[in-house]
Structures are given as C-alpha cells and as structure tokens.
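Forwarding the complex inputs:
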Amino acid sequence: MVFKRLDGRKLDEMRPITAKVGIIPNADGSAMFTFGKTVAIAAVYGPRMLHPQHMQSPQQAILRVNYDLLSFSVSDRKRPGPSRRSQEISKVTEWSLSPALDLKEFPNTVIDVQIYILQADASTRVAGINAASMALAQAGIPMRNLVCSVAIGKMDKELVVDVDKDEEDFEEGEGATDIPLAKLANTDHYTLLQLDGKIQPSLIPKALLLADKACVQIYEIQKKALKEVVTE
Amino acid sequence: MEKFEKSQEEYEDFGSEPQSRIIVVPGEVVFSGEDFLPGEGARREGNDIVASRYGLAEKIGRVVKIIPFSGAFIPRRNNVVIGRVSDIVHSGWIVDIDYASNGFLPLMESPRFVNKGEMDQFLAIGDVVAAKIWSVSPKSIDLAMKGKGLGKLEGGFIFRVNPSRVPRIIGREGSMINLIKENTGCNITIGQNGWIWVKGNDLDSELRARKSIEFIAEKVLVSGLTEKMEGWFTKNK
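Prediction (whole assembly, two chains):
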C-alpha cells in the first residue's frame, strides 16, 4: 500500500511557500517566510552598540537571536513572554546562522535578529531561520551564503518533507519523528541538525538527501524574493 | 564550460552598456574564470568570483565589486557626519553618530574659546552638529568641526535615510543635491551616516526637499535619476 500523507501531499512535497523581503520599514533588514499556515517574520538591527560592555567581543560582532511564538499564533492562547522552549530555539537559530556570517568585520558590536511566529503549524524554527537569513542579507551584512532550512519528518516508516502540525502529532505505527535542519545554500555545510523522536541510523542519509532537494527549492525562492524587492 | 561562456556574454554586456549591472545575493557566483579579480564585497572561491553581500555587481576593468543596497554606516576619515551631542566630558563632547561607537569632539575644535565649566553654553546635550571624521581607530572616532558647512546646526530639522543611499542623493559631483537646493531654496547638509539636515525659508519648502530626498532613496535601481528628478520637481510644484 502506498503511504498517504494526511493533507494529500507527495512525500517530498513542501507546503506552498511564500517569501517577502523588506516588510518592516524601521528595521535594517526584514523578511517574511511561510510554509503553508506557518508564518514567520524576522527583523535585523545592527551592527550596533552592545550593552552591557562586558558582552562585547573585540574580535567580532555578537549575533543575538530572539525567537518568539506570539500568543495568538496557536489555537490555545500561548502565555506571552520567553519560555524554556523559545530560549532554546533562539540559541540553536543563532548557531545555525552564525557560520554564514562574516562577523569579524564589526568588532565590539551586536547584530540583533528578532524572529516572530505569527501563525504556528509546525516547522516554525526552520521558517524563522529562512526568514532571518533573507533579513540578514537585506541588512547588508557580509555573508558566505544564504541559509536554507527545512524539517524532515518520519511518519511510521516513511520519510516526509516539511512537517505540519497534524503530521507532528501522528501516532500510528512507529509514531512521528521531526528532524529540523539548516544548511548553507549550494554547499554540504549543515549548520543545524536536531532530532525529536526515533529514527533508524540507515534512514539519516536518505533524510539529508531529501532535505538537500528541498533546500534547492527554498534557496531559489529566497533569491527571487531578494531580487524582486529592488526591481518592482 | 557552459557557465564560463555565459559569463563571457555578460562581460560583453558590461562593456557596451555601463548601466547594466546585475543584482546578486550573498553566496551567488558573479563570474567564473581566472580573468576576474574580487573587489569590495566579493571574494574568490576556487574558479569563481562570489558575492559576499546583497547588491549590484559591477565590473571595472578586471575587478568585480559589489555595490551594496543597504548596510550600516562604516566611518572613514574625512566623512562628514551629522550627530547629536550625548554627553559632555572634561575635554570635549561625546557625539552619537549612529554607529556602534560614539564620536568624540575635542574641546579644541570649538571655533571660539569655551570655558571648561561652561561647555554646555556652546554645545549642550541634545544639540545637533555637522562634523568631519578626523581619525578612526579601534578605540575612538575623533571628530573635527573646523571647515565650511560644519558646526552646530540650528533651526530646520533632521531625518534619516539608509547610509548606502547617500552617494545617490549627492549625485555625481553634487549634481543631485544642487538640483534639490535650487528647486527648493533650502540649505541641506548630508551626513555620510545617513542623517540629513534641511533648513529653508518656510516649512513647505523644507518638506518638499525631504520628500524629494526620500523619493531618491527609494529608487535603488533607476538610472538617469537626475533627469527623473527634474521631472519630479515640475510635477510636484
């Protein structure tokens, strides 16, 4: 029997993606990225002065990411403010973006990245990373490459690309596994690889291959969005 | 091999029409081949010239450089900046110049003698000054205020544009800014840090000057902007 995804997508098919750059006039760079019903916006400020001074590094700029799931983004109102979860995601987002940036050009400064999830339907951290990477480019920060990010899931025994909330809650058979990952576009340099659930080691290379294909598509959409904003 | 041929084609385009430039995103291959050299905002990766920033790729001779669309102000010697006095210390003024570190304006730079106890008589906290960057070191940015058009700015108003748009607003040898000055009769000082001070005879002409500058700042890719602005001024009388 052929495995059917809950919303009828093909196994390697992502939800409809939209990307838009320059959505926040007061930010130095900003972008929106959506995977179906998941909507993430990112704003970049800086490089700017960093206080308290003891956090400054004379070698390079500090990247400071703040990820926040807004209270109205989920069906049961989320208690606003930072949580254990949002702090962790902020940190891993920071780690997944910083290898792409050339931070050495701006010693003693900070680059602030604010990521807000307006609507959550799983894969929020990867949508946030995609948005932040476009926003950083628009802010004029020197970068090695754009960062592309996607979540690979395993439902029972099947690998799927771009997990949504219903798939995340899948409980039949072996249950659901969620693998958010991020990489520098057009390279084999992975900057994020998390695993929530169980997976056979032999399936990991297959998951990476699926992610590679998805990232190529995401990169093209990001590139198009960045070029569109100046030619309109 | 195909890629290389394509870049040769683009190369020809560049030679025939200097206005045609290509938009690049970070990590994008601009040109392939050993014939090119990476300039500002670009780097070499193996056989390719790769963009490091988001902007327009431009080829001058063999050098490929990226003109960024946006980005923070990077202070350089002899830049004119507009800043706001944020503190008064024993030997001068601390000036906020919209950069990661403050500028320092020494007491010696004031055009007349200022008593150390009464420094706020000349420049108080919150006053706006136009100054020139005298030196940039990792420790501090020293400002100078002796020169034409520099000094305390009184009256009018200041507003901000993206620092990367400043060269366009000034135009080739000041052609654009002179056009705006002629059409509005305003006194305008542009800081390289993106702060712009406008003072005219009445508020209407000041606002007209501001609108025209913001119009230019919006148009990133338009060529022949000076002619377009002449049209703008006849339309927005």
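Residues 157-235 of chain B form a domain with the Ribosomal Protein S8; Chain: A, domain 1 fold (CATH 3.30.1370.10).
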